Each structure stands twice: as structure tokens, then as C-alpha cells.
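Support request, please re-run this one:
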Amino acid sequence: MPLAIREAGDYFHALLRLRGRAMPPSPPDTPDFRSLFEASPNPYLVLTPELHIVAVTDAYLRATQTQREAILGRHIFDVFPDNPEDLTASGVSNLRASLERVVKTGAPDAMAVQKYDIPRSGKVSDGFDVRYWSPLNSPVFGADGKLSHIIHRVEDVTDFIHLKNQDAEHNRQHLALQARAGEMEEEIFRRAQQIQEANQQLRTANEQLGELDRLKSEFFANVSHEFRTPLTLMLGPTEDLLAGRSGALPEEARKELERVHRNAGRLLKLVNALLDLSRLEAGPKEERFVPSDLAALTADAASSFRSAMERTGLQLTVDCPPLSEPVYVAPDLWEQIVLNLVSNAFKFTLQGGVTLRLREHGRRVVLEVEDTGAGIPAQELPRLFERFHRVPGTASRTHEGTGIGLALVQEFARLHGGTVSVRSTEGQGATFTVELPLGHAHLPPERIRTTARPRSAAREATSAYVQEALLWNVSKPQEHTQSNRIPTPSQGIRAVEPMPRARILLADDNRDMRDYIQRVLSTDYDVDTVTDGQKALEFALARPPDLVLSDVMMPRLDGVGLLRALRAAPHTRELPILLLSAKAGEQATVQGLSSGADDYLVKPFSAGELLARIASNLRLARMRREMADERARAEGLAEALRARDDFLSVAAHELRTPLAAFQLNLELVERSLGRDAPTKALERLKQARAFIRRLALLVDVLMDVSQITSGRLKLTRSDVDLADLLVEVTRFAEEEARREGTLLTVSVNGPVMGPFDPSRIAQVLHNLVANALKFGRGKPVEVTLRPDGEVVRLSVVDHGIGIKPEDRERIFERFERAVSTHHYGGLGLGLWVSRQVVEAHQGRIDVEDTPGGGTTFHVTLPLKEAQAPLTGASTG
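Re-run finished. Output below.
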């Protein structure tokens, strides 16, 4: 036992022996043991075996923030309860267990470090302070050898625990950092390998892309060259014919040839642009730079647009004073720079004018082409000189173009050692600037010539640009052009039975395309033409046509925007709309149709195809109008019906009652007539009963359609003998079989019990047998039912007209038939309903040819109900 405990024990033994009796006067030198105990530097608490506090040291009071008079005589756990805010606190339970062991065993009990929070300032209401203790509980025995007291000694180790936790956290963080550093090293190594592999893949891909780019450029060059041969053979003879070298032409033929010549020239211009692009990508090798009078060359090229601009009300200003010296340029390329910039300015300038200035600044020459057009959005300026890039939504004379004109300008300027730039404010026009250095030190010496060669192609290029510009709203075109050709009596049926001519609205910004389509359509239709989508929208809203035929790419409002606007307006929502586009391919067609167009025609197209598409869509529109009229007439009844499906169910229920009464009355009439009734009268009554049964079946089918399509097909299963059900159903069919001269044979192999809906299965049996009798009229029909393990198999065999292989799946769809209704009638619903019922029973129905001709239907049904019925059907 520790010395402190022994000393405390001796003290308490002496104290307890003297307690309760008078003590003799102490000698003057006798120490005050209580004072000595209370002054002990160690925290002690003395408890009775009942755990009441009887003594405490000052050190204990300081450690626990308590007062001696406040705790003496009280139970230890009343003074030191668990912290109610710490739901995991276990100090009280652990200390109680240790003290009880001391009482029970009479041996000291050393406890592990405990977390035992103490009340702040000794008051529970003031909250708790976190404390960690190292307790030791020791017994004190009296003279009788019984336990008299327990000394509870504690050591406050809170600071040590905090330091230990901090060290543990630091160690944990250090280990985590070391582990993370190792992981990062591994990750860096792995990423380095991946980057190395990716770089190798990129190098390989770049090499492949470079090869593909070279092959593409070579392909463009080859295709462009191949295009030029047939174009030359088109342009040459056409020019000869227009020049009258083969004699005078009729006026109509001349107009057609002029249209052919213009568009062949436009095609040649596009081919030349592609050829130029492919040459640039392959590396310039043919361009020769010669000293040129750049002012004259520029003014000559720009002035070719004067007539086209004046006819549209624009002013062209060409300000090109003579320069101090010749400028080394490739004349053909410089002329294309000027033509592209002036053509571009004319295209996007609807009012005001275009100004071209050529100036000399130091050792550089500067060309500026300024317009008062639509301007360019700021976000589009960085991409303006990219190949094939086009600024969307900008007001212009046409949306035609390839998007390579400005890219060629930039490439041609670079070939001259120059630059091109643009500045623009949207809505206020744009200014393009080309700068070239003077002299020839910046040019490859091997491509410099001192004299220029004749440029026969220059006039051809200029003419192509100007001819194309003349097609963009020349002069002031009529807002709407209407053709009204009155059909002559020689037009056959229309002369005998005249019908109103449909009116078509044509929107296209290409004049030749408008004229061509108008000429093709005007024989059969009245055609109104407009030059852009906005005019088409205004015209259609004011006076809706019968059909709209619109190009996709147009200024102001494109074809898709026109389509959406017309679909949004109530009185044009149902208009048939056909889109014309030069974008070929399945994706373009799908996009056009998915945007809401009724049809999508890819250029080039033939007149016959255009006429057929228009006639087809007009017929469909007429049918839609007729259907809309029918729906409008039916809307008067709609208020009396909650829903179609409910109506069919209610109507079927209501019809069954009078039908049953009608059938019963017919039977009563037949009985009242007796056997002596005229044979003809009895036959008519029999036919009437057959018609009533047929009408009842039709009512049932209508109700089935309602339930199946709404997902409310409900099976009412019960244990049914399919053999009895089959015999009962075929008994009603025997009369029809005899009337048609058909031998109906039914073969049943024993009772076949299973959980089926008898009315639904009877419906399937009736449908299949009725079909066999109908389509195998006069020929044998065999019906077989046999169990096969856990399923039952039904076969209905006829020897009739049969079903083509391509129709076998289709016949199970709604309203589908394998033969014409003209000869056989029917709604085309029987097999569809049968399949739905069979599948609701987790079965299947199949069809195949009967050997020797005819059709065999096989139905397979499980004899045990599956756990999960099919979606859309429920089991009652």
C-alpha cells in the first residue's frame, strides 16, 4: 500500500477511534491531524461505505472547484453527476463500479484514465468543464476488521491527455502527409507516363490529320478541276446559243438559257473558290507578283459593281488616286480581294452606300472598303476570317454563300506580305482594311516578274461576281409576284369539272430559283412570290395561302423562323409548309422535319418531284381540313361525354340490355309462329338473331378497345375447364359453318383446368374460329385443344386464302388486315384484342402457314398463374 494511503489510514483509524468520546487534552506538541490531512498536496476524498463524503483535502477542492461545506455529508454522485450535455458520458457508471468492487472485495481498485466532467464553480446549472482523471480507490478497515471508509484519490491528467491527443493528431497528420506524398509521387509518375503516351498519340494523330488534310486538299483540287470541264461544256454552247450563232431563239427559250448561263457562272465561281482554297492549303506555287498600277486595277474591279448598286438605290464611291510607285501584287489575287470585299459590302448593305479608298501611308498601301450596312456583332469579329464561318441572323440581301470569301481575302493578303482587319459597330456598318508593303523585298525572289501576263480569266471572275450580285434584289423588285394562268379546256378533267386553284406562297431570295419554281407551278396553281422570310410571314398572316414553299437560308427571317412563326399563329398553325434546302443528308432532312415542316426537299430537285410533293401535301392538307370539320361537327356531342373510353364502356353496357331484349323478343316471336310458320319468315328471324349476335360482339370489341388502350384491361380469373369453354363457343359457330358449307371439327383431349378469365378466353376462341370460317369459307376448319405439361395448346387450322409472310406480324396490330375489307369486311381489331388477352394471361399467340394452303393459329397458355401479370393488365 502506498505510504500516503497508509498514513491516511493511520490517521483515520486514530480519528475514528477517538470519534464519539471525550478526548483527553492533547499534549501541546500533538499535531492537528485533520489540518494536516486537509493541507495534503494530493487530492483525496474520504467516503463511507454508503459513498457519502466525510472528508476532503484542499487540493481536491481546488481540482474540482468545490467548497468543503457544500459537499461534506452528501452522496458523491449527487455532487459529481455525469455531464448531461455529453450523451456518451460514462464517468458515474465507471466510478460506481470501482467503488462497489472495493466494498465487495475489500481490495484497492485502480481505474484507467477517465473522462469525468465537473460542474463549473461546483454548480450543475453553470455547466461543466472537461476533465480527465487517474483515480485510485482504497479501503480503510476499523478495529473490528470491517470496512469503515474508502479513500478516493485522483490525479488531474487533463493537460497530459490534451498533449497526448495533440501529439497523436500531429503523428496522424504526419503519417497522412507521408502517405499522401507517396501517393502523389506515384500519381505524378503515372500521369507522366500517361502524358508521354498521350503526346505520342497526339503526334500520331497530328501526322494522320496532316495526311488527311493533304488528301482533302488534293481531293478538292481534283474535284474542282473535274467540275470545270463540264461547266466549260455548259457555258460555251450556252453562250453560243445566246449569241445567236445557231439562229434566233424564242423568247421563252432565251430566258431559260440566260438562267442556265447565270447559274452555271455562279457554280464556276464557287468551284474557283474551292480550287483557290485547295491551292492555298497545298502551298502557293503558281502566283507571280508583278509591278502593277494598283489604283487603276482596284478602281476597275470595284467599278464593275456600280450598275448593280445603282439599280438597288445604293451609292458606290471609288476613291483611288494614283500611287507614287507600282505595287507588286498577283493581279488575279488582288482583284479577288477587291471583288470579295465589295461584293460582301453590297450583300449586307440595304441602304446608304459603299465607299472604297486606296491610300499610301509611308512604305505601305492601305485599301479600305466601308459600308453603311448591318454591321457585325462584337462577339463575331474574332471568327470573321475563319473558313466556312458565317454570321447568323444578320440582315442581308441573301443568305447564299460558302463562308470562304473573307478567309480567301485573309490568305491572299498574307501571300502579299500584308494583313487584313475589320472594325464594326452593329447597326452602323463595317470597314475592312487591307495593308500591303511597298517594294518586293518581302516577296520570294523566284516568284517575281517584271511584266504581267495577259489575264483572260480576270474578266471571267469579275463577271461571275457581278452576275451573282445582280440576282440580289435587282432594282426594286415587286414585293409580291402572282401568277394566274387560267387552264385551257384542253387540260382534260379540270375543264369538265373545274376546281378552285390552290394558292401557293413561295419565299426564296434567289431570283432565278423563284422564277423557275413559279414557272413550274403556275400551270396548276396560283403562285405568290416574296424575297425573304419576313415578307412571307406578313403575307401569310394577312392572307393565308393553301401551302407555303420556303427556302431555308434567307435574309431577315430564315425558313425555320418562318415555320415557327406560322406554327405559332392560330390561323396558320395547320398550313402545309415545305422547306427547300441545299443541305443534303439524312440529318438535315430529320432536322427540317423535326422543326415542324410537312416536307423537306433537297436541292437540286426535278420539276416532277416538286409537283408531286406539293400535290401530295395539298391532298393531305385537304384531308386534314375535312377531318377538322368532322371534329368540329362532333364537338357538339363532346360535352355530353366525359371521355371516349368511359363512353364506350357505358354505351356497351346500355346497348347490351336492349340487344338482349331484342333477341329475347325475336325468340318469342319465333315460338309464337310455331312450326307451321312460313319458311321464309323463320329464315329472316334466324338471320336477325345472327345479326344481333354480331352487333353484340362488336359492342364488346369496342369496350375492349377502350379498356386495352387505357391500360384498364382486367382479368377476372377462376378455375375454368377450357375443354367445356371451347365446346360451348364452337356450338354457336356450327350454324355459320353449316351455312357456309364448311366442315368444322373440334378435337379436345380431356378436361383442361386452369386459372383463366372465361369471358376473355371465349372471346379469343370466337375470334380465331370466326376468322377461320371467314377466310377458309367452304373448306375444312380443325380446332384442337390439348394439355402439354404446364401449358395448354390450342390450334385453329383453316385451308383458306392464307397470309403472306410479310403480313403475319402486322395482322396483330389495331385496324390491320391481311386482305381488303371490300371482300371480307371487319374492323381489324379481333386479332389485336386476342393477342392482348392472351398476353395478359402470360401466354402467346403465333401464326404459320397450313401445309397445302391456309393459316394455322397457335395459342399457348400457362396452366398456373404467374406471380407478376403483364403491364397494362390486372387480375381481379
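The longest helix spans residues 158-242. The chain has a mean pLDDT of 78.
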